[in-house]
From TrEMBL:
Source organism of this protein record: Cellvibrio fontiphilus
High-level lineage: Bacteria, Pseudomonadati, Pseudomonadota, Gammaproteobacteria, Cellvibrionales
Name of the featured protein: YaeQ family protein
PANTHER family, per the entry: SUCROSE PHOSPHORYLASE
InterPro entries: Restrct_endonuc-II-like, YaeQ, YaeQ_sf
Domain of life: Bacteria
Length: 177
């Protein structure tokens, strides 16, 4: 029998000073059996950096035809296709044909190798922007993971200040060059 996803609930109070986005979000996030807590927390952080009214989590790892998150217009047009990890250039090219903008939030071991191997192909895709997180900061973020999370996230100058009732951490997003 296949393992089932583990459900996490996150209540997020967001203040994105960079974009002028403020709000409270109640997220239900499924942790796929093959997914790490770090990846799930990066998905939540990607949600915070891209927060908008119609931004939703998709089937993610369970579907090869969908990104981790997407922002759709009311008419069904995909405004943003948001990937987490180190996607292949072919996947990003396909995403570019379906969405107005493609954002990648990269992290993890081998990220430098992935970028060196794929930078030229990805740079050729005008709709794609690549962002990455430092490993040590993500370890601190992963430590905040709990089945029921209450997070306060303030984003200013590209830095996310993430707080719980007992901890405060910072996570910086950087753009690949």
């Amino acid at each position: 029998m296949a393992e089932k996803a583990t459900i996490y609930k996150a209540t997020i109070t967001l203040a994105d000073m960079d974009r002028g986005v403020y709000g409270d979000y109640n997220l239900t996030v499924a942790l796929h059996p093959s997914e790490t807590l770090e990846r799930m927390m990066v998905r939540i952080l990607a949600f915070c950096y891209c927060a908008a009214e119609n931004l939703t989590f998709t089937k993610g790892l369970s579907s090869v035809d969908e990104p981790d998150l997407w922002l759709k217009h009311d008419n069904g047009t995909i405004l943003q296709w948001i990937e987490v990890g180190q996607p292949a250039p072919d996947r990003l090219k396909k995403a570019c044909s379906q969405a107005q903008a493609v954002r990648v939030f990269s992290y993890g071991r081998g990220m430098d190798i992935w970028w060196k191997s794929n930078a030229a192909a990805i740079r050729a895709l005008a709709k794609v922007s690549i962002h990455y997180f430092a490993a040590d900061e993500l370890q601190q973020l992963s430590a905040l993971a709990d089945k029921t999370m209450k997070l306060s996230v303030t984003i200013t100058e590209g830095i996310a200040y993430v707080s719980t009732a007992s901890e405060n951490i910072t996570v910086s997003v950087r753009e690949m060059e």
